[in-house]
Amino acid sequence: MGEKKLNRRSFVRGAAAVGTAAALGALVYARRSLAQLVQGNPADIDRAVRDHKEGLISDVDAQATVAAYMTAAPGPPRVVHVHDPGATSWDFGSQYYGHYVDQGAVDSMVDQGVMALTGTAAVATAWSRLVPDYQAGKAIAVKVNFNNCWVCSPTHLNLNNTIHTINAIVRGLKMAYSDLDESDVWVYEAAQVPVYEWGRREIASRFVDGCLYPGVRFFDYSCNDAAEYDNTDPTALIDWNPPSGTPDPPTTRLTDVLVGATYLIDIPLMKRHWSAGITGALKNHMGSIADPWELHPWMYPSGQYYQGTTWNPIVDIWRNTHIADKTRLILLDGLFGNWECNNSKAKPWSTFGNSAPDSLFLATDPVAIDSVMADFLDAENPLSSTARDVLVYADHAGLGVHEEGDPWGSGYSLIDYVKIVL
Asked: CA-to-CA distance for 220 and 288, rounded, in angstroms?
């Protein structure tokens, strides 16, 4: 037997060196999927670690145990829905909705959500799994949705993110990493088309001013640090793959903020969209490129090059390594949501008792979480026949799992939908 002692991290890292046949042949513990391991069933790995340290099994057998997890068919993607009817208290009147969110409630919602998503019993453990091996200098990019903000100090009430999810995220990261450098948290909105005033996305001062962690950095067009596009890294370019006969969209590059980050957290809003039908985790990265408007002919059903369930440029954007390989968490903001459209003030939801949804959704699968979101929107106000086209294509393209289900009733068979009421 080998004398080298391994910990869980080195087990998982070393599993890549063990072939599938060897893994299955040498497996000494019950086989489970990697998804199950991440979601809170690590007993086999723990046992392998203990037995290896005690010299009871060899390096090969220990690594084979982990490899079996990694080669097994994945379990269903988990979408956690946390609902706290006391999270907000806005009357949908004339005051800024962000002043009517309970930070403590949001903290608890995020805490419960990340633990349920990872299957862990401690907030710090959950965050260390979601954002593993953080060290100072490893930036954590956080994509927010400020599609309705093009000035530094807006007075309108069109729905954008509120600061509370950012505060809860940083709080959790600090629990996992006491040495977290707040300046490694990069909150950004990077769309910028200077010829249109409404094309210059800004992160509002009322959002920034509410941040409880002064070191956090904010990036946008001109109100905060600039979300630039100066990098020449070829991996920042989107690789377009439209069907034969369909022209490529214009050359498109991801923002330097995202390219320079090590980790990515996506915070979309639960909203209907006037043309696309829905806007959620997938579409949120239209704010990770400079000119999303150039892509409308390919994205929207009314567009000249729209391909329905055959192709959508949003999926090619998500396939880029800086999004697909860096995304650690999707935290869908449904505190208020907008069942009507993407560019208006939020209204009460009849399906949530004529109140706000007071909900947060957490996942790592963008297709699954957008599928659940679409079902909530559809239950409130029926979606168009084309609203789920991008989800069908994203599923076919292997980006995630799409299922049209019923979160208010029969639920899902392909998605592990977990609801927590606080």
From this structure: 10
pLDDT digits (tens, 9 = 90+) for 55-69: 766 766 666 665 555
DSSP 1-26: -------HHHHHHHHTTS-HHHHHHH
Angle (deg, nearest 10), helices 59-71 and 43-53: 170
For residue 57, give the nearest of 73, 70, 72, 45 by alpha carbon: 45
Cβ-contact 173, 204 below 8 angstroms: no
Query: Measured between alpha carbons, how far is 330 from 235 in angstroms, rounded to an integer?
Result: 22
- Taken in order of first residue, the domains within the chain and their CATH numbers are 8-71 (no CATH), 78-421 (3.40.50.11440)
Contact 380/44 with Cβ under 8 angstroms? no
pTM reported for the whole predicted model:
0.84
Q: In the structure, what pLDDT confidence band is assigned to residue 199 with cuts at 50, 70 and 90?
A: confident
Mean pLDDT of the chain: 88
Strands 416-421 and 78-83: parallel
